[in-house]
């Protein structure tokens, strides 16, 4: 039996399975005071992976449309193309939605109060009308 090796024996690089990178994510939950450490592949949502690892974090819609799972990124890089619930301005201020976020480096994030983020996101659109005490509401 010939034990020599030829190039024809090498695996085709196009058929090799490519492994995704895994990052360490530290999540500080402000509501509970706990800090969780997760290992999250770059091609998986942070919230979903955390749940699979037994970590319970705040969420609601799971579609990037609300602010229940909002965090502030303290360090690291995050990718969130589906986060329609955050304005470009809030994204520039380092807010992210864990339900539709992928890690792009090791991260440290802190959960936020949903109402605070909602007010930052939508406050300028609401609570500016002519609402008076009592029912029925006056028509303009």
Q: Can you give a write-up of this model?
A:
This protein is α+β, with helices and mostly antiparallel strands and 140 residues long. It has one domain: Beta-grasp domain (Ubiquitin-like (UB roll)). The protein is built from three helices and seven strands. The strands form two sheets. It has a five-stranded mixed beta sheet. It has a two-stranded antiparallel sheet with strand order 4-6. A hairpin with a 4-residue loop joins β1 (22-29) and β2 (34-41). It is globular and about 50 Å long.
Which key terms come to mind for this protein?
140 residues; alpha+beta; Ubiquitin-like (UB roll); five-stranded mixed β-sheet; two-stranded antiparallel ribbon; 7 strands; globular
Describe what is shown at a glance.
The protein has about 140 residues and is an alpha+beta fold. The protein has one domain (about 20-120): Beta-grasp domain (Ubiquitin-like (UB roll)). The chain is built from three helices and seven strands.
């Amino acid at each position: 039996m010939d034990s020599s090796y030829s190039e024809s024996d090498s695996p085709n690089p196009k058929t090799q399975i490519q492994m995704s990178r895994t990052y360490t994510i530290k999540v500080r939950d402000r509501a509970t005071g706990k800090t969780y450490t997760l290992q999250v592949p770059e091609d998986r949502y942070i919230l979903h992976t955390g749940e699979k690892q037994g970590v319970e974090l705040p969420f609601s819609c799971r579609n990037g449309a609300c602010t229940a799972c909002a965090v502030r990124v303290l360090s690291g890089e995050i990718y969130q193309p589906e986060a329609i619930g955050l304005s470009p301005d809030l994204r520039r201020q380092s807010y992210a939605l864990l339900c539709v976020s992928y890690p792009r480096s090791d991260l440290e994030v802190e959960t936020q109060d949903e109402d605070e983020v909602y007010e930052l996101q939508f406050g300028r659109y609401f609570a500016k009308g002519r609402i008076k005490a009592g029912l029925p509401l006056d028509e303009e």
